[in-house]
Write a structure and sequence with these properties.
Layout lengths: L25 H5 L7 E7 L1 H13 L9 H15 L6 E9 L17 E9 H5 L3 H14 L3 H13 L6 H4 L4 E5 L29 E6 L6 E7 L1 H8 L2 H4 L11 H14 L1
Parallel strand pairs: 2-4, 4-5
Antiparallel strand pairs: 1-6, 2-3, 5-6
Helix pairs in contact: 2-3, 2-5, 3-5
Length: about 270
């Protein structure tokens, strides 16, 4: 029995003619070549994230309050751009949940696609200068705050006028994009095997520059899966400014998780 059963009733704009016919040429299915990517998982402790948040907010002279996640994503974005071929203009895409942003709000357990992409565009030099952490985090904050009921409905109406689907390579070409959320209670799920020791995502919907974030096993910690070419990930690992905020881990797991796995294996022998 689910404690919070999903709400399956669909929400549509008033006057929507259903079903919606979407054009999707066959050549789009086959023409989706991907650059060879690797994935590296970075662990950020609650304490290090708090330091980044305080630093970003100290750079922002406004009424905006930078969140922990915005400060962390700004820190990651800066390292990725710093360790790639420098481009004049760079983009960061955040997937935001618009359920609570609608008027009236959609139910929290609304089962369906209720997401929008908030996009930040910056000059690379501005992103990487001394005030870049605060500036980029502030732009993320503004981008998220701009998604009101009216803006979301306007986007939906525009899409209905020319409905189409994009491939992963089209959506995320030359951008850094973030998905997932540290607010998901991934460690509270027990399928009868006990509390999870680690959580990772699969290969779907990943492309160059994709970041997937999860809560860590310790409260306030965040794990970030970063998908990039090997050379970029290797350079990030040698980036002192970036790695200063990263918590060392044993392989893919924390030391506590490894100890738990070892104890479990020994007890079963």
């Amino acid at each position: 029995m689910l404690s919070k059963p999903p709400t399956l009733e669909r929400w549509f704009l008033d006057g929507t003619d259903r079903p919606i016919r979407i054009r999707f040429p066959k050549e789009k299915v086959s023409n989706n070549s991907q650059q060879l990517l690797q994935e590296r998982v970075f662990h950020f402790s609650k304490e290090k994230i708090a330091e980044l948040k305080a630093k970003a907010n100290a750079m922002v002279f406004s009424n905006y309050k930078i969140s922990s996640l915005q400060a962390l994503m700004a820190h990651l974005w800066r390292s990725i751009i710093r360790n790639q071929a420098l481009k004049e203009e760079v983009k960061f895409v955040m997937v935001i949940d618009f359920r609570p942003r609608m008027n009236p709000p959609l139910p929290r357990n609304y089962f369906g696609n209720a997401l929008e992409d908030a996009i930040v565009i910056m000059n690379a030099e501005e992103l990487l200068n001394q005030e870049g952490l605060g500036k980029s985090a502030l732009e993320m904050n503004k981008a998220v705050a701009s998604y009101t009921h009216e803006k979301i409905v306007s986007h939906m109406k525009s899409w209905l006028e020319d409905p189409k689907l994009l491939t992963v390579s089209e959506m995320f070409a030359d951008v850094v994009d973030m998905g997932g959320s540290p607010t998901f209670n991934v460690y509270g799920v027990d399928f009868g095997w006990g509390k999870p020791v680690a959580v990772r995502s699969g290969p779907g919907d990943k492309s160059h520059g994709t970041i997937i974030v999860f809560a860590g096993p310790e409260e306030g910690d965040i794990y970030a899966e970063v998908n990039l070419p090997y050379k970029t990930l290797e350079a990030m690992g040698k980036d002192y400014e970036f790695m200063d905020a990263v918590t060392p881990a044993v392989g893919f797991f924390t030391a506590a998780a490894v100890k738990k796995i070892t104890t479990t294996v020994r007890s079963s022998l």
